[in-house]
From TrEMBL, chains A, B, C, D, E, F, G:
Keyword Cytoplasm: yes
Subunit description: Heptamer of 7 subunits arranged in a ring. Interacts with the chaperonin GroEL.
Cytoplasm is among the record's keywords: yes
Gene giving rise to this polypeptide: groS
Sections of the chain in a coiled coil: none
A single GO molecular function term of this UniProt record: metal ion binding
Main location: cytoplasm
PANTHER family reported for this sequence: 10 KDA HEAT SHOCK PROTEIN, CO-CHAPERONIN GROES
Database matches in NCBIfam families: PRK00364.1-2, PRK00364.2-2, PRK00364.2-4, PRK00364.2-5
Function per UniProt: Together with the chaperonin GroEL, plays an essential role in assisting protein folding. The GroEL-GroES system forms a nano-cage that allows encapsulation of the non-native substrate proteins and provides a physical environment optimized to promote and accelerate protein folding. GroES binds to the apical surface of the GroEL ring, thereby capping the opening of the GroEL channel.
Protein name as catalogued: Co-chaperonin GroES
Organism of derivation: Clostridium coskatii
Alphabetized InterPro entries for the sequence: Chaperonin_GroES (IPR020818), Chaperonin_GroES_sf (IPR037124), Chaprnonin_Cpn10_CS (IPR018369), GroES-like_sf (IPR011032)
Assigned GO CC terms: cytoplasm
Amino acid sequence: MKIRPLGDRVVIKKLEAEETTKSGIVLPGSAKEKPQEAEVVAVGIGGTVDGKEVKMEVKVGDKVLFSKYAGNEVKIDAQEYTILKQDDILAIIE
Amino acid sequence: MKIRPLGDRVVIKKLEAEETTKSGIVLPGSAKEKPQEAEVVAVGIGGTVDGKEVKMEVKVGDKVLFSKYAGNEVKIDAQEYTILKQDDILAIIE
Amino acid sequence: MKIRPLGDRVVIKKLEAEETTKSGIVLPGSAKEKPQEAEVVAVGIGGTVDGKEVKMEVKVGDKVLFSKYAGNEVKIDAQEYTILKQDDILAIIE
Amino acid sequence: MKIRPLGDRVVIKKLEAEETTKSGIVLPGSAKEKPQEAEVVAVGIGGTVDGKEVKMEVKVGDKVLFSKYAGNEVKIDAQEYTILKQDDILAIIE
Amino acid sequence: MKIRPLGDRVVIKKLEAEETTKSGIVLPGSAKEKPQEAEVVAVGIGGTVDGKEVKMEVKVGDKVLFSKYAGNEVKIDAQEYTILKQDDILAIIE
Amino acid sequence: MKIRPLGDRVVIKKLEAEETTKSGIVLPGSAKEKPQEAEVVAVGIGGTVDGKEVKMEVKVGDKVLFSKYAGNEVKIDAQEYTILKQDDILAIIE
Amino acid sequence: MKIRPLGDRVVIKKLEAEETTKSGIVLPGSAKEKPQEAEVVAVGIGGTVDGKEVKMEVKVGDKVLFSKYAGNEVKIDAQEYTILKQDDILAIIE
């Protein structure tokens, strides 16, 4: 199944990273704060959105930071995604 | 009866899918989360809406994801529909 | 008495339909959900409203669906009407 | 004393109508719902208001319907008036 | 001391009128409702305010009606004034 | 240390005036209402702010009146300042 | 790891300063009010943001004052950063 977001929307998949504490213990993703890091899986075409011209700055595969409470969560083929406006993406991690 | 949505509005019919659990049990739609998937049944002509030019991106028959709480629910000929603004449609599923 | 709505406003009269249940019993309008269907009885001339150009899409006699909580209810000559902005009309029923 | 409303404002005087019930009893205005009908007593000159061009559509003497909670009530020479924006006037009664 | 209001602001001084009741008793201003009548004591130069062109319609000495809760109260040389936007002035009393 | 406010922001220092009551007692600033009078200590360059052209009307050294709750308080070198938008300055005292 | 903020966003790192009280005691940063001073570590390219042209005024290395509650806090490589819109930066400290 393929998702094509409308307008300036972006589909992202949250990344859950393992983390090693100072004492060497590995904390799985679920034991930490809600992640804010994600990978872009689909990007709208931008254009005129709400009467304003929007140019898409992110592309599929980018690692991004996003506002924790932004967007809509959807589940497709048992995988959770978040669909949000590009403006809710804070930064690209390079 | 035919519905012609005004401006940038779209009429959708929610899709309730059967789902097979890992153990093989089939869950009917009502036992699951409120669906966010729908089929487009009518599309407004767009044009100038609230002083802004809107181009319709969805067409009748498209499968779409939409914001759970968006739009107005109406019942026509015993069938429930949701009428929402195209901007409340998150993505097209292809 | 004649009502001439200002700007992009529309005057509608709610329709209360009789409905036949599967067992054949007729339910009068008052036993059902609040109706959302109405007939247009007067239409403003549109033009520049709040600095934006509005073209009227509905005409007197149209059957329309409208947002349940939209507009102002007024009683004129013992008949109840709702005066709302055209943008609160969701769709025309044909 | 003369009131000259600024911009797109309009000064109206609420009308309290006597009403005859089916049994023939006359109800004075105060025993009924808050009136929404009024007569226009002064009209601003319109022009550029909040950066938008406003053309005045009502004139002194018009009978109008207005939003019940709109505007500011003022008392001048023991007479109560409401000063509201023309956009809060719903319709002209002809 | 002289006050020069910025942009489309206006400085007004509330007027407290004596009022004679029907029985002839004079009520000083403080025993009545909060006054909404004022005299203009200083007027900004208007111009571009918040990106919009504003033309000042009131002038020093005008008697005006204003929204009861609008503006900021300031005390200068033991005299109370209200500084508000011209748009919060409802009407000029002539 | 020098503060350079961004855009249409202004840095002000509140003035606390001594006040002599009618009986001749001097009230230090802290025993009175929160002051609303201030001196401008730094002014942004204006220009395009939030898509609108802003021309700075105040200059360093101006005595101004400002909205009591406007702006952000900051402490620099043990001195308290308020940084606010020029639009939150009500008037210049001359 | 490198962060590239989108649009008119800026990444800052809060500065915690030691402070010497009058009695000569050194207060570490955590015993004081939440700091509002920060250093800019990354700057977006600006351009058209929400339909408005934004020119970036801050640059990497600038010491800035920012609104205490603005922006999103993120932790990258065990270091906390705040990502905010340039408009939430109040002033540059020189």
